[in-house]
Design goal:
The complex is a heterodimer of chains A (303) and B (291). Chain A is α/β, with parallel strands linked by helices and 303 residues long. Chain A is built from 13 helices and 8 strands. Chain A has a single domain, classed as Alpha-Beta Barrel (TIM Barrel). Chain A has an 8-stranded parallel sheet with strand order 1-2-3-4-5-6-7-8, sandwiched between helices. The longest helix of chain A is centred in the middle third of the chain and has 17 residues. The two termini of chain A are 24 Å apart. In chain B, helix 2 packs antiparallel against helix 3. The two termini of chain B are 32 Å apart. Classes of the chains: A alpha/beta (303), B mainly alpha (291). The interface between A and B is medium-sized, with 30 and 31 residues.
Chain lengths: 303, 291
């Protein structure tokens, strides 16, 4: 089966991850712009980060047969540095119209400060202007309030819910998010977000309509194989194959295809120029190495 | 090194003609409109259109005819856009439409595009180096681009591009050749490869060959191409070793290198090898070295 991981921070991951993801059937990934564990203090580091997302990381992924896309945005945590945030707003238009940029994101709330909200709203307007979908990061703390308020603000700006993916949902937030018509994403991330056994229960209760599974794997303890592992666990627990396909591939495709920049043909039948430039000129694998192809061997449970 | 005069208007003219027969009317209208804005010096229009090109026009191969490739060569000596795509041609056209009264201003605008370049954009930018106004102002940019880790971007500089051989100094040039071998990119499509061969390069390349041998790794047969004309006693001994112990293609490459070598032992070594060099040339070696 083919998988899409529509939320993963590959700049923090190793080539072993890429190899294992490719072997497990991950065909396409989306890397949302986010913070990197250490707050940035200069606009130049933002620019280089954005350039990395549309440049080297895209190339690196292709060396393992995986198509890499990204979202561009100012995350809520770093939005609190107002002087820097204003410069990022000036920088973003340079990147939003680039090939392979599939959304504005991840944006939203962290501490729910007025400054966060100011830059959240500015970026919602930017997304309208460039006609891109929006990826919402819901806060870790005070999650339910933050999630609901994110949707209220989005609606104030007249943005229809089908253009928005709300991420990092849990049992407490998902009903409202689904009822209001949004794409409802779940991050399978040990300890702090969802476990995949809980995800199976959510699928049983709510079905697969507008449900999206991702890993958000990054520099913390996380799992780059969360999507295939969750799909396997769903299958073992009697979830229908068609529902698994929706949650682990088709819904992400439909949500981000609204950008006009995320097409299945990119990885199933790439343009000749992409075959020449992305999938052949291989530097990471040079020096006699061939990709290690093996199935993940652990039990596939993420708690 | 000879540096040709570059006539951006003539290049823009052929690009416009090629595109006009390959894109739809509404796409032509969009491009014409954007070129007008860019010609007026609207930098923001340039930045946005440069990014939007691939979604507006697609990225199918240009697939130029033999006649069109001749037009390319007439518009700019050494320009070979055989592998160019529609979006790349349009991006170059937009760049050439931006007013370039003085080098500093034009390069400053270009630097902003490089700094924010998406992978496909970087390829388009670097392969356009030989077409830009103020040719000598782009040598450092070329050398900077060579440091990329993205093979496709590196190839946009190294392959079918007359700019490096015309503008790089020997140190920069030698790095280009060595890096091709280091990252496993073919040497044969490097423009000016034989003309720019030099003694320090021959030394760097044979050092590299020794490093590879010490590590038990293969040495590209193409490496010997730039060694031959400057081979000293030690290098001729290396070639002798390849002739005696190498694979068929390595032996052919060593004999070709010796053929281009003025060393007193070269003729004897070729004779002793029993290899027939007629019809053998470096492109053939390259074609067999990379599949």
């Amino acid at each position: 089966m083919h998988f899409i991981d529509p939320h993963i921070h590959m700049v923090s991951r190793t080539t072993n991850d890429y190899e294992a993801m490719a072997a497990a059937g991950v065909k396409a990934i989306i890397e949302p712009a986010f913070w990197q564990g250490q707050p940035r203090t200069h606009i130049g580091t933002f620019q280089d980060y954005f350039s990395m997302l549309v440049g080297f990381e895209r190339f690196r992924a292709a060396q393992f047969g995986i198509r890499h896309y990204c979202t561009i945005g100012l995350n809520s945590k770093e939005a609190n540095n107002q002087a820097l945030a204003e410069q990022v707003m000036d920088l973003m238009p340079l990147y939003l119209t680039k090939e392979g940029v599939v959304a504005v994101g991840e944006i939203g709330y962290d501490d729910m400060t007025p400054t966060e909200e100011h830059f959240f709203r500015l970026q919602l307007e930017m997304a309208k202007e460039v006609d891109l979908p929006i990826l919402i990061h819901t806060p870790h703390r005070n999650k339910k309030v933050g999630t609901y308020r994110s949707m209220d603000v989005i609606e104030e700006h007249g943005i229809p819910p089908h253009r928005v993916i709300i991420d990092h949902n849990n049992e407490e937030t998902c009903k409202e998010v689904l009822d209001r018509g949004y794409w409802c994403a779940f991050t399978i991330y040990p300890n702090t977000k969802m476990g995949n056994e809980r995800m199976v229960e959510i699928m049983k209760q709510y079905g697969s309509t507008r449900v999206i599974v991702d890993s958000s794997a990054d520099w913390g303890v996380s799992d780059a194989l969360a999507v295939p592992k969750t799909a396997n666990l769903m299958a073992r627990n009697g979830i229908a194959q068609s529902d698994i396909e929706l949650a682990c591939y088709k819904n992400a495709l439909a949500a981000y295809a609204q950008s006009g920049q995320f097409n299945e043909a990119d990885w199933l039948d790439p343009a000749p120029i992409d075959q020449r430039t992305l999938f052949e000129g291989n530097s990471v694998l040079r020096g006699g190495q061939t990709p290690r192809v093996e199935e993940p061997k652990d039990e596939g449970i993420i708690r | 090194m000879s540096v040709p005069d570059v006539n951006p208007a003539a290049i823009a003219d052929v690009l416009t003609r090629w595109l006009s027969t390959r894109i739809a009317t509404d796409q032509s209208r969009w491009l014409r409109d954007r070129i007008q804005a860019v010609s007026d010096g609207d930098k923001k229009a340039l930045f946005l259109a440069f990014g939007l090109v691939s979604r507006k026009l697609g990225k199918a191969d240009l697939a130029l005819s033999v006649e069109e490739l001749t037009q390319a060569e007439s518009a700019r000596i050494g320009w070979n856009p055989a592998a160019w795509t529609i979006d790349q041609a349009a991006r170059t056209l937009l760049l050439l439409s931006f007013p370039a009264p003085d080098a500093a201003t034009w390069v400053a605008t270009l630097d902003q595009l490089f700094a924010a370049g998406e992978m496909h954009e970087l390829i388009a930018l670097y392969q356009s180096l030989p077409l830009f106004p103020h040719q000598s102002s782009h040598a450092l940019r070329c050398a900077e681009g060579m440091r990329t880790n993205i093979t496709a971007v590196f190839q946009a500089i190294a392959h079918h591009n007359p700019f490096p051989s015309e503008q790089l100094n020997d140190d920069q040039w030698n790095q280009l050749v060595l890096k091709c071998l280091f990252v496993g990119v073919a040497l044969d499509p490097v423009v000016g490869l034989d003309a720019r061969a030099n003694a320090p390069l021959a030394k760097m390349l044979t050092d590299f060959a020794h490093e590879r041998w010490a590590a038990g790794r293969a040495v590209s047969p193409e490496l010997w191409r730039c060694v031959g004309p400057y081979a000293d006693d030690a290098m001729v001994s290396d070639l002798e070793k390849v002739l005696k112990t190498g694979s068929e293609i390595e032996r052919q490459a060593a004999s070709l290198a010796l053929k281009n070598c003025r060393h007193s032992r070269s003729a004897t070594l070729i004779n002793e090898s029993g290899l027939h060099l007629s019809g053998l040339h470096w492109s053939l070696i390259a074609a067999q070295s990379y599949n």
